[in-house]
Amino acid sequence: MTFWQLSPAAMTFAVAALLAGGLIRGYSGFGASLVWVSCLCLVLPPPAVVPSTLLLEIACSVTLLPKAWPDAHRLSVRWLLTGALLGLPLGIWLLAALPERATRLTVGLAVGISALALAVTHRTRRLPGRPGLAGAGTAFGILNGACGMGGPPVVLMYLASPLPMAANRASLVVFFLAADSMTVATAGTGGLLTGDVLRQTALFLPVALAGVAAGTWLYRRGGGDVRRIVLGILAVLSLALVGQAVVA
Length: 248
Known about the structure:
Oligomer: single chain
Number of helices: 10
Strand content: under 5%
Shape: globular
Low-confidence stretches: none
Order of helices and strands: HHHHHHHHHH
């Protein structure tokens, strides 16, 4: 099942979710996958959502990369990517093997845990060492391959770091571009990038990029911390997904 089989009301909901995720991504440098996957999984099966979300993330990162590259903390990004390579194969296998209901429940719980972790995260005096960075990258790889939303471990690490907000945002943009590209390549070898998924993604792309452009415009004029907004959205989406998985 893909976008074209949805009811008009579900289509409208999907478009609104794409805009909202793009807006958050353009403003904060993260959060799009959490919104896209959790919202779209309410109306579409996860195997149709996750590959599209990964492709959209890559496109969004490409638009943000030129301004992000100079500010990125490259050492931490390299070790995160090393860990992501280790976790990706297991995540892709889980996406193909888990039943749809189990995947929805996993996504809902992951979103809820991410919201809770964001709420209690405090700044530390330094970044984790190389093993800690690689461990966060491995967790990203498993989650990203399994449900297209591996960002929380890495986002939480950067939000707690002593780096300036601009460096955190830039590092996330660079990391997500490289890591999502690796995930898509792995998913392609697993047969998850079907023609229907690619056509659906082509339809989603202009909507998502419009949201990113609006979010970037707001960021350049306002800046600041969007944590409270993201927390509220994630809490609602987590409850919706878990409720759907339990009731279904």
